[in-house]
């Protein structure tokens, strides 16, 4: 596995964890969770910066975005019981299709 891909996937995981911590912080009323969210997103972007040293930015950011959105949707469903409707899942599917098309074209 490519090192840039490892950085990118680590960044995605940290972004999803940051989003979960942000939700759990209840609008930063729970400050420890809010601080955890801020630290996690900072490290996530640091890893993304490392990934783009050897990957095209538009590909890395597009993959990061769609995996982060999908991961957050799945994680909030599992942890908080939040659900997406079929239109939202269609939107995520279109994002995934767009990434595949960009990868094939790039």
From TrEMBL:
Q: Which UniProt keywords apply?
A: Cell inner membrane, Cell membrane, Membrane, Transmembrane, Transmembrane helix
The protein's superkingdom reads Bacteria
What InterPro entries does this protein map onto? EmrE-like, Small_drug/metabolite_transptr, Small_multidrug_res
Record-annotated membrane-spanning stretches:
34-52, 59-80, 86-104
Localization terms from the record: Cell inner membrane; Cell membrane
UniProt cross-references to Pfam families, sorted A to Z: Multi_Drug_Res
Answer yes or no on keyword 4Fe-4S. no
Q: What is known about its subunit structure? A: Forms a complex with MdtJ.
Q: Which family does it belong to?
A: Belongs to the drug/metabolite transporter (DMT) superfamily. Small multidrug resistance (SMR) (TC 2.A.7.1) family.
Q: What is the protein name for this chain? A: Spermidine export protein MdtI
Source organism per entry reads Marinobacterium maritimum
